[in-house]
Specification:
Blueprint (H helix, E strand, L loop, with lengths): L14 E2 L2 E2 L19 E4 L2 E4 L5 H5 L23 H9 L6
Antiparallel strand pairs: 1-2, 3-4
């Protein structure tokens, strides 16, 4: 249904027949960690998140999973390779027939 309070006319999953069904009763303004995110929209109460009504709760665990401005670096551990085994494998040797 469409929001009737904070983002009038915008589709909202938290808007029901009795109004806003979010536990706080309305969307909350964004927090400092949200600055730069593409999901921020201007509402009647100020800047709000278009994906989740309580941005502060998303950042309590460390990183908001909706954040578009934060890049997560994935570390991959390099496995150590025995040079002797690597050279045998590359030459095609060591195969039993």
């Amino acid at each position: 249904m469409q929001c009737q309070t904070v983002l009038p006319g915008i589709e909202c999953t938290f808007w029901g027949k009795q109004g806003c069904i979010f536990s706080e009763g309305s969307c909350q303004v964004v927090v400092e960690n949200c600055e730069g995110c593409d999901r921020i929209v201007e509402g009647t109460i100020g800047k709000v998140c278009s994906a989740y009504p309580a941005p502060v709760k998303k950042w309590t665990g460390g990183l908001c999973n909706f954040a578009t401005h934060v890049k997560v670096e994935i570390k991959s551990e390099e496995t150590k390779v025995n040079p002797l085994k690597a050279s045998k494998k590359a030459s095609g040797g060591g195969k039993k027939k």
